Amino acid sequence: MGVKIKAVAKALPEYSRTTEEVMPLLENWLVGQDDRFIRKVKKIFEGAMVDKRYSIMEPIEVFTNTSFEQRNDIYVREVIKLGKKVLDEALKKADWKPETLDYIITVSCTGIMIPSLDAYLINSLKLRQDIVRLPVTEMGCAAGISGMIYAKNFLQANPGKRAAVIAVESPTATFQLDDYSMPNIVSAAIFGDGAACVLLSSHENDEGPKILAEEMYHFYDAIHMMGFKLVNSGLQMVLDVEVPETIASHFPDIIHPFLEKHNLKIEDIDHLIFHPGGKKIVQTVEDLFSGLGKNINDTKEVLRLYGNMSSATVLYVLERVMDNKPKKGEKGLLLSFGPGFSAQRILIEF
Questions:
Q1: Which of 201, 218, 244 delimits the end of a domain?
Q2: Do 196 and 216 have their domain in common?
Q3: Could you list the residue range(s) of the whole structural domain that residue 179 is in?
Q4: Which of 31, 185, 207, 214, by CA, is between 20 and 30 Å from 258?
């Protein structure tokens, strides 16, 4: 029977700006800085491969000196709204009733809320009172696939069940107004806000791409490379400049042994469903696979249209691929990277 992906949906916050529209706000923020530094920052934004970013806050609010408490209050309020919206949309796509869900996993790393989002969704959608819930809060960009892995394992052990993985992120809520470091600037240039939901099932009557395998891969001695530091003004981005090169050096170990366990090679993969971590990571992945006749066009397009929305982003790529209705028997490889440092992989068959 196995575990299948029934539906994927997305939801976006109400505010958005193109890169061109962001530039005047950026210029105001950079007043007083060295001219050479200002030119460098503008070049980073213009060359980030991101045409548009969405935000839970008015863009002017992002560049306003608010407290951690004020920003986190906005995060909580908007995450609840987006979470409900995206779960509603996914359930409509699947033609499922809310009360048929057996397992709910919520994913976010860009704010702090207790109770977690899943508790609010149980109340607002009147999910079953015996639903199993799991909030995932500290796995960063890898958490969307991590949530799918947890759901798959639960469903595999419990035939005839259904699960929802809801990822809601607001990286703009973590922007540090008084931090002119490269990690803060680069993250502001590549990140945006968004939500996604993927529904999975081990019910015999539910159709969709089948999950063939899943694995996590953990890098040794790379804890320092990515994450957040909790400071008085909020969550401060930690982003090492060596991330793309580190990923590239591990790529053979991440990809090939995983596929070989299932008698496959990268040439057998029809759809590369990769998390668009940023321009350099996208270019690194593209360089590694272009010689094999593979493309990551959907990954690049998601980055261009929305930016990196942390854990939700790879699910946007998955939605695009599924909406294009791949041929029966085609295979896809989902891959994302996150703090730890780690890589998460899922092999699917359409």
A1: 201
A2: no
A3: 4-201
A4: 207
Same domain, 289 and 224: yes
- List, for residues 183-212, the tens digit of each pLDDT value: 899 989 999 999 999 999 999 899 999 999
> Which of the pair, 68 or 294, is modelled with greater confidence?
68
Last residue of a domain, one of 153, 170, 201: 201
With beta carbons less than 8 A apart as the criterion, state whether 125 and 85 touch.
no
- Same-domain pairing of 293 and 338: yes
Round the average pLDDT of the chain to a whole number and report it.
92
Domain count, the chain: 2
302: which 2 tokens? 């998601």
Specify the pLDDT at position 278.
Answer: 85
Model-wide pTM > 0.90: yes
